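Subject: design request, 330 residues
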């Protein structure tokens, strides 16, 4: 009975610690952009630069507008550029309805209509974001000047039993992460990591298994390529349960709506530039090349020095590709 009382007290302390930290972060890291209502909840959009054709940036599966922190300011030097956060991530609201791929594309459409209702735009999608911009372009080719697909995960359009198993495991880990965030364990672990005491958080991660440990270590390595001033903001967001819940929702969408995604991205009537990371196997590079060549004026670019997050490893290449399209349209 005494042990139960101690556990209850620790959980209550963790919840209180999480709430206090969340309120403090809300004051420290106010939304830098605008919040746009997309039907029941709001999505956060940042804008910079001036000119046309404008550019809209969409992020990877569990990423946000912060993943464009290096690229967006450089694009803003020659045209207008927006980046946004999908529901549940960064400064956007928790989704007000279950996640489906069609709903995610609808919300992307609402954002684009709000920020650029009068001119065709260049749409840039990294990883999972590439599916969204391709689906939008298939629906509204007249509204799209060109697509730039940054290392699109085309292999995930074929959902094997092994990939389905990985997605289910990812969802379970995301739910565990949300639970740990509710009681302050994620916040405390991140505070220890950034404070130079990684031993405790690493022991917690190892409990989740070697796959989770390797994945998190790799993600931490990628995040360290961002400007240091972004670290505290990312730490704040990933201390919140909503980000883990949003990631679980996206993983479920990828698993459940595979056929709908394949149909939504099956064809495209606008020019497509595909940027492949240099560490892709030959068969994936071939798939990317064929995807680019299937469009009129398509082009395939290989980022030889990059892993999956090309905008972290070779941001200048991503910017140069976009600038080339902007200059050609002008």
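Subject: RE: design request

Done. Sequence follows.
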């Amino acid at each position: 009975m005494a042990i139960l009382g101690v556990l209850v007290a620790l959980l209550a302390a963790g919840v209180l610690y999480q709430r206090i930290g969340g309120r403090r972060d809300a004051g420290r890291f106010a939304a830098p952009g605008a919040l746009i209502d997309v039907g029941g909840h709001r999505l956060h959009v940042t804008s910079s630069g001036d000119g046309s054709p404008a550019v809209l940036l969409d992020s990877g599966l569990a990423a946000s507008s912060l993943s464009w922190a290096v690229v967006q300011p450089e694009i803003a030097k020659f045209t207008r550029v927006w980046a946004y956060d999908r529901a549940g991530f960064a400064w956007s609201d928790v989704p007000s309805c279950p996640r489906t791929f069609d709903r995610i594309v609808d919300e992307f459409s609402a954002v684009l209509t709000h920020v650029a209702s009068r001119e065709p735009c260049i749409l840039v999608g990294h990883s999972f974001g590439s599916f969204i911009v391709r689906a939008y372009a298939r629906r509204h080719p007249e509204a799209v000047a060109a697509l730039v697909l940054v290392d699109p995960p085309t292999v995930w359009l074929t959902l094997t039993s092994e990939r389905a198993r990985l997605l289910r495991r990812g969802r379970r880990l995301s739910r565990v992460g949300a639970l740990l965030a509710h009681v302050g364990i994620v916040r405390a672990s991140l505070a220890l990591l950034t404070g130079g005491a990684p031993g405790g958080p690493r022991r917690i991660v190892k409990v989740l298994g070697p796959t989770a440990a390797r994945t998190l270590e790799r993600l931490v390595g990628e995040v360290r390529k961002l400007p240091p001033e972004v670290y505290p903001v990312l730490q704040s967001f990933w201390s919140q349960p909503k980000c883990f819940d949003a990631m679980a929702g996206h993983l479920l969408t990828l698993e459940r709506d595979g056929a709908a995604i394949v149909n939504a991205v099956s064809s495209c009537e606008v020019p497509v530039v595909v940027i492949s990371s240099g560490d892709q196997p030959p068969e994936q590079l071939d798939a990317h090349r064929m995807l680019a060549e299937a469009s009129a004026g398509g082009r395939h670019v290989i980022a030889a020095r990059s892993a999956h997050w090309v905008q972290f490893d070779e941001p200048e290449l991503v910017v140069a590709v976009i600038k080339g399209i902007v200059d050609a349209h002008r």
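The beta strands are 34-37, 42-48, 55-58, 81-84, 121-126, 144-150, 272-277, 299-303.
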